[in-house]
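Field notebook, page 290. I keep forgetting to write these up properly, so this time I am using the form the group agreed on. The chain and the ligand, adenosine-5'-triphosphate, are recorded exactly as supplied. Prediction of the bound pose follows.
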Amino acid sequence: MREPKADPVLVDICAVTKRYAHHVGTARGGRSSILAVADLSLSVRQGRTLGIVGESGSGKSTLGRLISRLETPDSGSIIFDGRDVSTIRGRELREFRRQVQTVFQDPYSSLDPTKTVGHAIAEPLHVHREARSSSQRRARAIELAERVGLPRAIIDRFPTQLSGGQRQRVAIARALALGPRLVVADEPTSALDLSTRSEILNLLVELQDTEDMTLVLISHDFASIRHVAHDVAVMHHGRLVEVGSAAHITETPTHPYTQALLSAVLPPHPRVAREKLTMRAAGPSPTEAP
Ligand SMILES: Nc1ncnc2c1ncn2[C@@H]1O[C@H](COP(=O)(O)OP(=O)(O)OP(=O)(O)O)[C@@H](O)[C@H]1O
C-alpha cells in the first residue's frame, strides 16, 4: 500500500440538491419531481481515483453531470479548484471545459460516425485553438492514440470500423487531448464485453497515475471499483450513505446499504478473499464537506 497522504481537494461538493420535473401519467396530467441528488456533500481529492457506486437510479450520473457542469444544482454548490462552477462564465468557463473532461458509457453514440478517428481525437484541440495547423493536430492525434494503446494507423479510420473497446479508447484519447485535471468517466465499461472491460478500466487507472489527473469513476459495479479506486462514495436514493478509502469501505462498511452491496459482490468467505486483495492505497478518506 502507498503511504497515506493528504492530497488537496480539487472538487468540493457542498450540500447539492438536484430535482428533475416528472410528468405523472394520469388522465388529468400532473407534475411531480424526482429527487436525483439530495443534499449531498463530498470532496474529491486531487490526483486520486474516486469511485461513485450505487444501484441504477441512485443519482450517480446526475452527480457526475453536476461535477462536469453539464447540469446545474438547484441548491448547494460545486467548487472546482476554489471557484463555484455554477457562476463561472466566459474565459473561466472555457478554461473549466478544458480542465474537466467526461467519458461516457456508450462509445457508439459518443463519436461522430462521419468523422475519422484522428478528427475525433484532435477536435478539442481545434475547438480550444491549440495545435492550429492540421499537421500539428494529426501529429498530436497519433501521439494520443498511441498513448491509449491504439495503433497510429487507426487515426485514418472511422468509428464504425472499430470495436467497442477501440472506440472507448478513442473517447479516452479525446478526453486527454487538452491535458485535463479531472476526468469524469460515467460507466465507461458497461457497454463493452467482459474481456474488454478490465482493459479499459486499467487504462483509465494507469492514465490517472501517469497523467497526474484526478479521476471520478461512476459505476454500479462495486466489485471492480473497489479494486481500482483510492476512495469510494456509496449513493442510495440520491444520498451519500458512506464514503471512505476503498480498503476501509471494503473491510469495515458501516452502512447497511453498503454492506448489502458488498455482500452481493464478495465471495462466501470474505475474510479469506479480502486478505488476498491488492487494493489501491488507503490514504486518509475524503471528507464530507461541511
Ligand atoms: N434528465 C432527466 N430527466 C428526468 N429524470 C431524470 C433525468 N436524469 C435522471 N433522472 C432521474 O433521476 C434519478 C437518478 O438518475 P441517475 O441517472 O442520476 O442515476 P444513476 O445512479 O446514474 O442510474 P443509472 O446507473 O441507471 O444511470 C432517476 O430516477 C432518473 O430516472
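OBSERVATIONS:
- Confidence is low (pLDDT under 50) at residues 268-279.
- The domain at 1-81+182-188+218-290 is CATH 3.40.50.300 (Rossmann fold).
FOLLOW-UP: compare against the apo run.
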